[in-house]
Amino acid sequence: MSEASTTNYDVIVIGAGPIGLACGIEATKLGLSYLILDKGTLVNSIYHYPSGMTFFSTSEKLEIGAVPFISHQPKPNRDEALEYYRRVAQSWKLNVKLYEELKKVKDTSQDGYHLISTKSSYSCQFIVLATGFYDIPHLLDIPGEDLSKVMHYYKEAHPFYAQKLAIIGSSNSAVDAALECFRKGAEVTMLIRSDKIGDNVKYWVKPDIENRISEGSIKAYFHTEIKEITEETIKFTSEGKAIEIDNDFVLALTGYEPNFKWLEELGIKHSSDEKCIPMHNPATMETNRPGIFLAGVICGGMETNKWFIENSRIHAENIMKEIGKRNAKA
Prior knowledge:
The protein has 330 residues and is α/β, with parallel strands linked by helices. It has two domains: 3-136 and 256-329, 3-Layer(bba) Sandwich (FAD/NAD(P)-binding domain), CATH 3.50.50; 139-252, FAD/NAD(P)-binding domain. The protein is built from seven helices and 17 strands. The strands form four sheets. Strands 1, 2, 3, 4, 5, 6 and 17 form a seven-stranded mixed β-sheet that branches. The protein has a five-stranded parallel β-sheet with strand order 8-15-9-10-11, with helices on one face. The chain has a three-stranded antiparallel β-sheet with strand order 12-13-14, with no helix packed on it. Helix 1 packs parallel to helix 7. The longest helix is centred in the last third of the chain and has 21 residues, at 309-329. The two termini are 29 Å apart. The mean pLDDT is 92.
């Protein structure tokens, strides 16, 4: 791709999730030229959520761009969210390019940044990383994790009918999967690192899973450490005791993490503790790299439960206001 074919923008947003779309909306309001780039589909993370998932938040808290989100119930489901964000993109005529992966970023100093994707080449003064965290599972790093029977994403229950299913984790995703798979005929065993179901589990779901465990419909082991996964079993310790159980499939729903590789390649520093929070100014969301901003859940590093759509929508407004000020001075 020659330099002559490069398209120029004021700002390029990486990630077409709800917060990336919100950035495009705010750029539109300020008359900034922009592009939203995503390696997957529109709101790719939501698309990969389980088919029957219901959001924790109410529909109005998921709204962006003053486009009303009408759902059948106060808390919308995955399909309603996909429909809503498609409507947002259409209503605002957002400049989005999908299935186009960013491959390289070059700092051109006075001229800003030069971006090379799988399909084209772009230049811009400012970059916003709104890539979320759902693309990269937090791995267990144990023997057998690479077996085809092991999955880090849950889509639906049907494939696990009449199968011995181990679910690793106790978050909302793990609990939802356990309940749905149990009710669709799977023999479910939960392997939980702590001594109880997670405190952040949805309040209307937590009694359900606790009752199913109490009655023995869903087997649960606590204080577990997974040791190995084989073709026919899973090995772990619980309360210090070594256990091996028969197993057909494993859902390792152990959480996800931001793309730290990209942050490091762009020279964005992060905290040295286990939280790995990327360095940024909370007022403007600008990182230690001038002209590169963060928006959404990526701001929390490994604290992936800190930022949500409803409390990070403001990032888009703050970022674009800052970029608008700098453009006005240029």
